[in-house]
User: What shape does this take?
Amino acid sequence: MDRTVGVVLAGGRSRRMGGTDKSLLTFLDRPLLHRILERFAPQVEELLLSANGELSRFQTFPLRVVADHRSGQPGPLAGIEAAFLACDADWLVTVPVDLPFLPLDLVQRLWAAKGPLNQPAVASSRGRIHPVIALWPRAILPAIRAALDAEQRRMLDLLARLGHQIVEFPALPDGQDPFFNVNDPASLEQARQWIASISSGTLRKT
Assistant: This one.
């Protein structure tokens, strides 16, 4: 396996959370970002955090923080661009910061599926593709930069042009989506309740 760096994408505006930084929301008595790092860090050689705004708020976390090189909140493609420019990795694996049940075999399964053409490998669950959860080769950096220069920010459009592999992930023990994301206060509470049911023995731990 070539050098693989993980990138936690946390540069969004969190509108459905009222603008609150999702990475710092309390989950299991710690910031949600801790939960993501705990599950993601063992799978990669290094972790980067893609974020914007006042970066000092992440100074207590054990990873390097990388800001977009472009203004105006250009989206996750800009985070991938900045991450590639900040490291020498052959491959990046990106995940959003709001996945409390991030699979522990995510990188292994994406890497196994990338195919001989070294195309991006994109996670899917319940038949739905998650373009922000993917393995990206450095060779596509020029295509990312060209898309951003042309203000073409939709990841699915870029993936369609590049070609990609899709990796389907199974549901968790109670049918929960492994890529359940915390988008709003209700989903945050749902994730907390699901963890509580695991702790009480109602569900098998994941």
